[in-house]
Amino acid sequence: EVVLTQSPGTLSLSPGERATLSCRASQSLGNTYLAWYQQKPGKAPRLLIFGASSRATGIPDRFSGSGSGTDFTLTISGLEPEDSAVYYCQQYDEYGSSHRWTFGQGTKVEIK
Amino acid sequence: EVQLVESGGGLVQPGGSLRLSCVGSGFTFAPFWMHWVRQVPGKGLAWVSHINGDGSNTPYADSVKGRFTISRDNAKNTLFLQMNSLQAEDTAVYYCTRDRGRPDSFDLWGQGTVVTVTS
């Protein structure tokens, strides 16, 4: 089973700064279906990035994703106050004829 | 409007059962793979189960295998989660989600329904 480890646990930055969030997989992923989600308090998660680097519909271009293999990064360039949230990475792996999906434990981004 | 709306959550005693529902609207429900994801208050996201378009493939997380059953009624655009032998550890917000691929990421989420298991 793939385990996703996110770092740091919390990131505290000022508006306009760049946030770099890391997601490391316990084994090399044979696909690039690494996704990133944003979750604000009391709300459902929102898809930001799919396929490791493609932005979902309506996501501002200050959000970008990169990486392959075991190391993936979500970058938020030019933080806005509304970017304060918890960010999760997600992947799936195949076992037998089926799949299972895994989330990282999350990185909290605080805007000073 | 494209949306998912869950219902069926509530308060239940340990060992009890609940059936969650999720109605999809604004899109063609049948072809999409669907999932249930849960979140313990203050904690992270955890995948629970998945169902493919015709209901023939239904994997489960180890924590719920043998107790939960996912199903769907494509004629009614509805996803279900039958939860039996509920335990305190099942207390969470349960989200219905749509898979954008086969498989891929989850591009549409419901608002969530709260399940509380307590004596």
| Tally of individual helices of chain B | 0
Quote the average pLDDT of chain A. Answer: 93
Please describe the biggest sheet of chain B, giving its number of strands, its sense, and whether it closes into a barrel.
Answer: 6 strands, mixed
Oligomer: heterodimer
Largest interface, counted by CB within 8 Å of the partner chain's CB: A-B, 25 and 21 residues
End-to-end CA span of chain B: 39 Å
Number of strands of chain A: 11
Specify the overall morphology of chain A.
elongated
| H/E topology pattern of chain B | EEEEEEEEEE
How does the major sheet of chain A shape up? 7 strands, mixed
How many beta-strand segments of chain B?
10
**What coarse outline of chain B follows from CA principal-axis ratios?**
globular
Element-by-element helix/strand order of chain A? EEEEEEEEEEE
Unreliable sequence segments of chain B: none
Helix coverage percent of chain B: under 10%
Note the main attributes of this structure.
heterodimer, A: 112 residues, mainly beta, seven-stranded mixed beta sheet, four-stranded antiparallel beta sheet, B: 119 residues, six-stranded mixed beta sheet, 10 strands
Architecture blueprint of SSEs:
The complex is a heterodimer of chains A (112) and B (119).
Chain A: E1 4-7, E2 10-13, E3 19-25, E4 35-39, E5 46-50, E6 54-55, E7 63-68, E8 71-76, E9 85-95, E10 98-103, E11 107-111
Parallel strand pairs in A: 2-11
Antiparallel strand pairs in A: 1-3, 3-8, 4-5, 4-9, 5-6, 7-8, 9-10, 9-11
Chain B: E1 3-7, E2 10-12, E3 18-25, E4 34-39, E5 45-51, E6 68-73, E7 78-83, E8 92-99, E9 106-109, E10 113-117
Parallel strand pairs in B: 2-10
Antiparallel strand pairs in B: 1-3, 3-7, 4-5, 4-8, 6-7, 8-9, 8-10
Structure report:
The complex is a heterodimer of chains A (112) and B (119). Chain A has 112 residues and is an all-beta fold. In chain A, 0% of the residues lie in helices and 54% in strands. In chain A, strands 2, 4, 5, 6, 9, 10 and 11 form a 7-stranded mixed beta sheet that branches. In chain A, strand 9 and strand 10 (98-103) form a beta hairpin. Chain A is elongated, with a radius of gyration of 14 Å. With 119 residues, chain B is mainly beta. Chain B has no helices and 10 strands. In chain B, strands 2, 4, 5, 8, 9 and 10 form a 6-stranded mixed beta sheet that branches. In chain B, strands 1-3-7-6 form a 4-stranded antiparallel beta sheet, with no helix packed on it. The N and C termini of chain B lie far apart (39 Å).
